[in-house]
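Teaching assistant here, posting this on the class forum so everyone can see the example we discussed in section. The complex has four components, and the goal was to see what a joint structure prediction looks like when all of them are supplied at once.
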Amino acid sequence: MNTVYATSANVAERRLAPPSLAISTVIFALRPSETSGRPTLWLPLVRRIREPFKDMWALPGGPLQHDESLQDAASRNLRETTGLAPQYLEQLYAFGGLHRSPAQRVVSIVYWALVQPTEAALADESENVRWFRADRLAELAFDHNAIVDYALWRLRNKMAYGSIAYHLLGEFFTLAQVREVYEAVLDRQLDPANFRRQIKGTPEIEETGEYLQGGKHRPPRLYRFTGTPGLGPDNRSTP
Amino acid sequence: MNTVYATSANVAERRLAPPSLAISTVIFALRPSETSGRPTLWLPLVRRIREPFKDMWALPGGPLQHDESLQDAASRNLRETTGLAPQYLEQLYAFGGLHRSPAQRVVSIVYWALVQPTEAALADESENVRWFRADRLAELAFDHNAIVDYALWRLRNKMAYGSIAYHLLGEFFTLAQVREVYEAVLDRQLDPANFRRQIKGTPEIEETGEYLQGGKHRPPRLYRFTGTPGLGPDNRSTP
DNA sequence: ATTAGTTCTAGTCATTTTGACTATAACTAA
DNA sequence: TTAGTTATAGTCAAAATGACTAGAACTAAT
């Protein structure tokens, strides 16, 4: 009673074939805006070199390999397309609509990542890999616009509650830099004094003795993040 | 260059075969505790009738069919095993660890559901389908204990922020019943007066002219939920 | 050397929210 | 009629929040 499937199935076979499984990642990093210079959200996309959606931009992704976990697949994908090691990586959602891909049914398990700006600055960029502002995306392949929208929604949501902003910064940072992250993601100005009061109230942040020199104003104190990512079911056992 | 896979693959073939995709659901409903009579969280499990984990209890689930969306598959699954139509259904997580299932690599996309107590009361129960208290589960098949734990965590989390408690109640309810839901899920007592003040502050609830008669005390006013589930990326277009 | 310009940082003050608690209302059962 | 129960409104202090003020500490210009 064996049922046999083929990868390049014709229409008749497709009805029987199981949906194929793919992993994609939405990778966020902060880069200075070309115009204002203030940090804004960017993400890398890859150009599709084959049908469907040939020549359109898409999220980095690929098939799941048999010997890697979902998270490992996302991590590998990220490394292969951008050369980056993510500071933060979490599952976003499994997208499985029937008509996401025209020819073949594909279920995509999507992860989202945050990378530090220092790393993001030296990320690979090429003819087929380019960074875009997250709030100014053109039409992407598949349902990837909707996926990015959802990832942005999750990022804003997590930022409002959890302590996720630090993963978009380096090891040391000023409170003003943290505020700039919030302002970039939430897209609104925050009162500097109230923001610092609130954020200093959390235990996940630690003063260092250092100050950031070089600005044309009073040098701000540097802080360090001491909390843990502490997330979904997969990362629970590793504190 | 066609690669051919078989469903009952041997070890050699397994290395090539793509992971199989399954859908499972964690279904929560309130039922009165046998001891205290207060509402507590219960969920239905199915007895496995074949290996692996034969005779152990497991979450309802099954393979994804080619012509149904992930959510439809979860919904169908729920209906087939319990006869229930969920009041609330949301994707929980995609579990894809390498060794979740001993023989074969399985990626499970898990949904979680909330059903009303009136419906839950007439849910099918049989030799192979039984309801259990969510906080007193024995050892389940696969990684299903961890999945239930994570679903409970999400439920508690969503309850603390969003307006999800109402989906565990019928169309009309008293504020004390809402409080009992919170107390059951969060597992702690809440001050009745403060709770009602807080919950009456939200716009998603509406007074009715009706009162619940029959208690041996002042009859409480009945309320109605007017908000929307408003959730993940799949339900966004349908407000 | 002085001054202006900048951000950093601590603090004030009124408003809102929260938690603990009191008191009355409205029913049932004895 | 009274005791028992929960419903409901309200009080009060504590805590959190939002708008704002002012001095501190640096750089750059005069």
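For the discussion questions: Chain A touches chain B at residues 1-8, 14-21, 63-64, 66-70, 91, 93-98, 105, 107, 109, 146-147, 149-150, 161, 232-234 (CB under 8 Å). Residues 191, 193-194, 197-198, 201, 213, 215-219 of chain A lie near DNA strand D (CB under 10 Å from a C1'). Think about how each of these relates to the inputs above.
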